[in-house]
Write a structure and sequence with these properties.
alpha+beta; Sortase, Chain: A; 2 domains; eight-stranded mixed barrel; about 30% helix
Length: about 250
Amino acid sequence: MKSKFWLALEIIAGIILIALLVQFAKRKIEDKNYLIQQEMLKGSIQSVETTSIKDVSAPVANRLEERNNMAVQEVEKLRNEHPSIIAVIQIPGTNVLYPIVQGEDNQFYLDHDKDGHYHPFGEVFLDSRNTPDFKDTNSIIYGHNIRSAKTIFNELLQYEDQEYFDAHRAIYLYTQNGFREYKVVSVFKANPDESYREIDFDEGGYKNFVEKYFDLSTVKGDLPVSESMITLSTCFNNEYRMVIQAVEITSQD
């Protein structure tokens, strides 16, 4: 006959196991619901890329104005439901189509969703030092690399492949002020304390900054002349970040 001690130990172990299983199941359900909500949100975003301009024969300036208006309308529609959203990021040809939020610091949205609820996936968010109109010289955008669900910025790791880089160089931002288009120019791994997160530059500093990381890039392409850029940053592992830099380009419409 088992002693009372061992019986009590088995009961405690059983209770702990059940609690862990319940917690695991709860986490899986929360993750599934989160992904469902993200997909629903994606479905509500009308892509400027796929939405046809009403009059393709109109002057370029008119078409650009229409595209800007469409972007503003999409963001405003989302902000009516989720006021924390300041923009939307899209990488054509990928699954990256997410709202962007911004907090008072760079910690809150690491583990909270756009409605302020705790979730370990967090949100895609703009650096708290940046202005929400994306008019800074370098706007920094963060997002988790969710390997288990292959979501958020997980797909950015594929940019190390030259063919993938060549096929996915366009990045679109839908902002409260209009549509912005960027071209990926640099892909590299960096220590979190590396200076790639600078947002202010002295005269000539921006050009040197862009060229520095262009030279460090593990994949190669052209480097258009630009006056501003965005930097996407996600975890590669515990020590390094995967960094994607894209310069703002003049529309070719």
